[in-house]
């Protein structure tokens, strides 16, 4: 029975702490008698020991005294008195009708422990710390000597990340950088009125006159210029004086030869009559060296000059016009004009006719493109050209034939380097 009671008592109790003084359980209060608060109700002693009746009474008196002594006495566990029972420590048997009550020995108070370091959360921030940073950012900050306090990170929920630390290490504020200050507006009136230069006034007058009086139409073609680009490089490498030949020089030469073949394009409409020009003078629309404006220096008798001569003369007249010291005839006498914006990356555009001329050619950039050659798709270099035409002077069929001739000459550039017969 004693062994069975011990086993049941062990099952009914929770985990024990420390060592327990065990023995027989001896009730100190008779059955049915109310017990006073703080008075012991049972004691545990060595097996076989007896508790005299007067001891129970004495224990009751001690409980009364402990109650009257105040909070300090109440703090003492009632079972502490039972620890003075004599006899060796042994496992206490538990009666079947009443589970054993055990009292754990109070362990000696350990020395004050140092506060544990703040535990890092899953996001790398200390639980109680104000700085919230990723583990990588913290390690990098320690290596670079960067103070993370007070820094607002650019990561989720304001977490400091590696990029913020690197920016701080370079002397920048990283994610905490302030937004750039708005640009200061210029002082003065909202609308400023400017007087045009004499050149700008002339351009405005003539362009308005052109759009108002010239019934124009346009024709666009695309030329394959792989051979022309290759020929230009060969000229620059092997022919003296050709080191500055441009595609515009090829265009001047091609248009000059086509104008000789189609003289009606090299004409004007004046006072209700056609005026066909004997000379082929090609104007080149260029920007001035400073400010806004438009200059049209002229290469005279372009059909009688080879590409190298055209290259040299065109550079000279452009330089004189831009310097403000044009020679006589440098800015007058054009019978046809070319405007090339390909060097600015423009694919194609439409130019305005410069009266009294009857046409102007607008040239776009040379671009790599997929082209069909003998039934195969190959890479090629193409250039788009648009001719603006005064419909009073010549018509669509002539414009198409003229553009077809210009295209043929550019795609067979050997015809451009042969001196024309007089």
For the record, what is the CATH homologous superfamily label of the largest domain? Chloramphenicol acetyltransferase-like domain
Beta fraction: 15-25%
Structural class from helices and strands? alpha+beta
Under CATH at level 1, the class of the largest domain stands as Alpha Beta
The largest sheet has its strands arranged as 3-10-9-8-6-7
Anisotropy-based shape: elongated
What does this protein look like?
With 422 residues, the protein is α+β, with helices and mostly antiparallel strands. The protein contains 11 helices and 10 strands. Helix 4 packs parallel to helix 5 (162-169) and helix 8 crosses helix 9. The longest helix has 16 residues, at 53-68.
Quick tags:
422 residues; alpha+beta; Dihydrolipoamide Transferase; Chloramphenicol Acetyltransferase; 6-stranded mixed β-sheet; 10 strands; 15% strand; elongated
Give a brief description:
By secondary structure, this protein is an alpha+beta fold. It has 3 domains: 1-11 and 20-29 and 38-98, no CATH class; 135-174, Dihydrolipoamide Transferase, CATH 4.10.320; 198-417, Chloramphenicol acetyltransferase-like domain (Chloramphenicol Acetyltransferase), CATH 3.30.559.10.
Which helices and strands, and how do they pair?
Elements: H1 2-12, E1 24-27, E2 42-45, H2 53-68, H3 71-75, H4 135-144, H5 162-169, H6 198-213, E3 216-224, H7 226-238, H8 247-261, E4 267-270, E5 273-276, E6 282-284, E7 298-299, H9 307-322, E8 336-340, E9 359-373, E10 376-390, H10 396-411, H11 414-417
Parallel strand pairs: 6-8, 8-9
Antiparallel strand pairs: 1-2, 3-10, 4-5, 6-7, 9-10
Helix pairs in contact: 4-5, 8-9, 8-10
